[in-house]
Specification:
Blueprint (H helix, E strand, L loop, with lengths): L2 H35 L3 H26 L4 H36 L4 H21 L1 H9 L5 H51 L3 H24 L5 E6 L4 E8 L5 E7 L2 E7 L8 H13 L3 E5 L5 H7 L6 E5 L5 H9 L8 E4 L3 H10 L6 E4 L14 H10 L3 E8 L5 H14 L3 E4 L7 E7 L7 E2 L14 H10 L9
Parallel strand pairs: 5-6, 5-8, 6-7, 8-9
Antiparallel strand pairs: 1-2, 2-3, 3-4, 9-11, 10-11, 10-12
Helix pairs in contact: 1-2, 1-3, 1-4, 1-5, 1-6, 2-4, 2-5, 3-4, 3-5, 3-6, 3-7, 5-6, 6-7, 8-9, 11-12, 12-13, 13-14
Amino acid sequence: MNAFDLDILTIWIVAFAEGFSTLAVEVIAIRLAIPVAGSSMTLTGVMLGVVLFALSAGYWRGGELSARWDSSRMRAALTRNLLLSGVIYVALSFPAEAILLGKLLDAGLGLALGIGVAATALFALPVYFVAQTVPLLAELTNTEGKAGKASGKVLFYSTVGSVAGGIVTPIFLFPHLGVRGSTYVVCGLLFGASALMAARWTARGTILSAGALFLVAVHVISEAAKPANEQFSFDSAHQNIRIVEERTAAGRLERVMYLNGGRASGIFSGSGQSSFEYVREAGRILTAVRSARVLAVGAAGFTFPRDAAAMPFVEQVDAVDVDPVVRVIAERQFLRQPLPAKIRFFPRSARYALRRFRQQGMRYGFVLLDAYSGMGVPDELLTVDFFRDVHAVAERAAVNFILDRATESEFACNVLASFRTVFGRVWLKDVKPGDEEITNFLVTDWEIPGSAEWTGTGRIYTDDRNSADRDHIRMIWGESGADLGY
């Protein structure tokens, strides 16, 4: 292999790394915003728009520079741009995204505007630098005087890298390394590409060594910043999972699983008994209806499925959760014991699982919908279309909703109206009186002790027209940044 062949191989590798990192950054940026803004088309659309705009600006600027610079200056610029982008991503963009987005929403910015400002401030510059790679590499390979041919080859390898980044990041990196580990991989790839473009071998070694030390330093600092009471943390493809031990107001030690910043499950550390009142209330409802077959949508720490399986009249408990890692984490880190044999776990999306159950003619005497924890909510599980699938398989259905205490917000009125459209009536029980302004309500389609019927009005959410993500943001962040209370 001659020197020219080696140079061309280096260029194709760098083009692949540029494409991989760009798509991976898009996926990671969307994933990091979900705990704050929820998973929605608004988030995806705005984030992609910002990245594509930064890419277009980088392509334009790189094309202009490639027409004026010689090969050595272009190589130096590529080395600098790739290295600088990796540093910005790992030191600023990824760690600060959720914090900045939360502050912008707390300041009163709308969902789309808040996402746009945060994405522009944190990701536009490094994406702009990386995007210059394509036209600069095209100029370096244009040895035949055929710009179209050279550009086509560079774009081919860049696009193949983008395909790999879009697939590998959520399917392989997130489940095995978590989101934070995935950010290190992406930034390490950029450091490696920067080293390849360096003209001297000594410079390549320096870049790789400095990049590795920088990633280690960032990791050590982030580990040191963790709360002392945090016992476990993992950022899966779907959610941030944290397990902490903390004292209740009564002084009892409680082990709590947080999902996307919200308290999702809790047990008393000494006894293992469920500590969340809505779970105990759901257990009391189940005892009253005495259903042999139970379905829980949203498994979290598996406290309700575990408690239901312990009831002698219950023959089978099916638990559905989109995140396949929650069972292992619940058994090893949260409950610290295997789940009862009565429990069947379906690691699938709730929409897919309920439609399959409906097609198969499955029926449950009691269904608990408990998939609405955290700062963001899955808006696809708030539509009448989804509730119809639930109603088709449930004889009795209860939902754990997090709403404003007065149930006067647009989100509360709309989601309750959507539930009532399918189930006929809506009964609310405040399961934690005296809690914060944003609190838990157990919602049923029949009267339970201590509940009151909701007779308000609202717009229904449908798959075709659904503003639940924006309404939820206004409810959460429009109340002086009120925390989620459980």
